[in-house]
Amino acid sequence: MSFNLQFLGxxxxxxxxxxxxxxxxxxxxxxxxxxxxxxxxxxxxWAPMPVKPATLDAVILTHAHLDHSGYVPVLVKNGxxxxxxxxxxxxxxxxxxxxxxxxxxxxEADYANRRGFSKHSPARALYTxxxxxxxxxxxxxxxxxxxxDIGSLxxxxxxxxxxxGAATLSLIDAGRSVVxxxxxxxxHDAVMHAPAVVREADYLIVESTYGNRVHDPEDPRIKLGxxxxxxxxxxxxxxxxxxxxxxxxxxxxxxxxxKEDGDIPKSIPVYLNSPMAVDATHIYNAHHxxxxxxxxxxxxxxxAATFINSPDESRALNEKKGPMIIxxxxxxxxxxxxxxxxxxxxxxxxxxxxFSGFQAGGTxxxxxxxxxxSVKIHGEYVPILAEIAAMTNLSAHADSxxxxxxxxxxxxxxxxxxxxxxxxxxxxxxRHRIEEELKWTCEVPEYMESFELK
Length: 454
Fold this sequence. Notes:
Layout: E1 3-7, E2 19-23, E3 26-30, H1 39-42, E4 58-60, H2 66-69, H3 72-77, E5 84-86, H4 88-115, H5 129-136, E6 139-141, E7 147-150, E8 153-159, E9 167-173, E10 176-180, E11 203-207, H6 220-233, E12 237-241, H7 247-260, E13 270-273, H8 275-283, H9 295-302, E14 306-308, H10 311-317, E15 324-328, H11 337-345, E16 352-355, H12 364-369, E17 374-377, E18 380-383, E19 387-390, H13 400-407, E20 416-420, H14 424-438, E21 442-443, E22 450-453
Helix pairs in contact: 4-5, 4-8, 7-9
């Protein structure tokens, strides 16, 4: 009996992960992510889904990052009534990520309407905080290694590293298997354990975020310390756009250790300006088996910064003078509180904007790293005179060599391998390596392309 696989996202981009798998009369959506970055991608979030949500039999999430889970409230609002399977860690993180996403969208729409800079009248949120909370009731957590049956398919989630709750997904029926890597973590990550080895799959869908790159082996504290010291010596602010879940916690851990070791002065104030990141930081203790941190290290991570919760506290930060360090979401400067800080601090050459993760094409982060002299925020162009820096070795994604090493754990080649979740250059580079080094049948699918897997 065959599978039909259609790629509804994460093709030619690292966002919008959605895969429709049809088998034995069942329709399963693997991941349900938001498109981010270029406008033509973001517009897909507003277009009707190619498949009616009410016709889906199940949704399975590989992890909680918004490019994999952020479309769930729209799916439910538009008629999906079934279960959304995920790990317990993904459930806990979605409980904070999705309502926060809805709340930020409402705040940004309200801000646009008050300031009158939106082309839409009125500007509106893709979904609200209440939409997100309603969708959370359909999350159905399963433990790593436990199997649920969806018709004749047996679905199992295995640890992928990368993030609390992150999983690879195996779907098996009558000896035929389809495996989705989700986002693969790194074997020697500072926080998360290495991804579990998968031994076989008939059909494999593998991510390629860093498919054309190898991470810098240098200790991240060296670059982080250099940036902090030179910025604070000139009285500036180090502003770090950060993913609220995963990256923010790793940064807090490094900052704590650097202060304890005397790499940076203990007197430099650190602010974590993301209620979602604050909540996520406390969740690490509840999932201690998934990461390398002790209870004491989790406590130290929580105490490494002053937590900023209210909008008033956030606005007050913009009036403060350096030296100080601000960590704020979002990681690609696509929205959230960090864009207000960029407006406040981006035009001062004493300050530094330090990017700590991958910047998708079309985002403000990518524009600033490319040398943009100004970026558009809330309808106006903000000059960028601050130093722009980037850390490329904090990523929670496996790099090209690490992906290849993970693939070498397979006992036999898949019949077909599909490379997704990467910019075009990265995806094609990984395809080439897989074909040349492993001699596997491999291809990079196009958006909306379908394949019959016999």
